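Hi Y.,

Following your request, here is the sequence exactly as I used it, all 87 residues.
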Amino acid sequence: MATSKKPSRKSSTVTEVAELWPGIDAQFRLIIVAAMRSKQLVRGATARIEPDPLRRRNTSIALEEVKRGLVTFKIFDADQVTDQVAE
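Below is the corresponding structure, written out as tokens. Let me know if you'd prefer a different format.
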């Protein structure tokens, strides 16, 4: 009986995110950054790319901007955030 060897979904996804998306180290971070950028676009921010006629939705534009590295974001350390809030 032959068994198929499928690559695990988790390992392939993590590899794809790290290789294709500059600065994005996890799929969750990609979702959060793209969602925040999409909200900015909904509120009237100017797109940083020329929208593709087939992909005019804010979420598609936001994902493409993140993929090209046009959206800047900062990763905070949980300890630093806690210290700043306590002060």
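The chain has a mean pLDDT of 78.

Thanks again,
Q.
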